[in-house]
UniProtKB/TrEMBL annotation:
It comes from Elysia marginata. Residues 10-92 form the DUF7041 domain. InterPro entries: DUF7041 (IPR055469). This is Retrovirus-related Pol polyprotein.
């Protein structure tokens, strides 16, 4: 096997979000046509900071003869990513919307799911995080399984119900009388 010579400097590995870091890294590999296992492996190793390299020393000091990249990727993802139990706990403990748009809340929730498919509870967890003024109109939304469309509809309501020039955190207290609009 040979190592491809390609100019690429990856950002330092993100211990707080390995899946996002690997998604960006693999995009860089694709853009530069990097396909060789060893090339990808050594680019990843070069992007580790001292603490991460120390923790990964067993894999770095004696990598397997084949599948080096997948080995280091699996190790780093397992070492720094959230376990299934941690993802579930985080999903259930997500704080209320606050001043975030509903789509930002949905993005956070979907990121925690990873490759898993949302169940019927997912929609209800999302709706409970929204202010009542947004939740009520969405209760009968036709977007039962298209969660991005549901979040977009929530964003539209959020933008409509939030007065311009006011703090968005006041939204749960804000009431609108739709009959006065007619």
């Amino acid at each position: 096997m040979s190592i491809e010579t390609v100019a690429l400097k990856l950002p330092t590995f993100w211990t707080t979000c390995p899946s996002a870091w690997f998604a960006q890294t693999e995009a860089q590999f694709a853009l530069r046509g990097i396909t060789a296992d060893e090339t990808k492996y050594y680019h990843v190793v070069a992007a580790l900071d001292a603490a991460t390299a120390s923790r990964s020393l067993a894999v770095i000091s004696s990598p397997p003869p084949t599948c080096k990249y997948n080995t280091i990727k699996s190790f780093l993802t397992d070492a720094y990513g959230l376990s299934e139990a941690e993802k579930a706990a985080t999903l259930l403990d997500i704080k209320e919307q606050g001043d975030r748009k509903p789509s930002e809340v949905m993005d956070e929730m979907l990121a925690l799911l990873g490759d898993h498919r949302p169940c019927f509870l997912f929609r209800h967890i999302f709706l409970r995080l929204l202010p009542e003024a947004i939740r009520a109109p969405l209760a009968n939304s036709s977007h039962n399984s298209d969660y991005r469309a549901l979040a977009k509809e929530a964003d539209n309501l959020y933008n409509f119900l939030t007065p311009i020039g006011t703090c968005r955190r006041q939204l749960p207290l804000y009431r609108i009388n739709l009959w006065r609009l007619w």
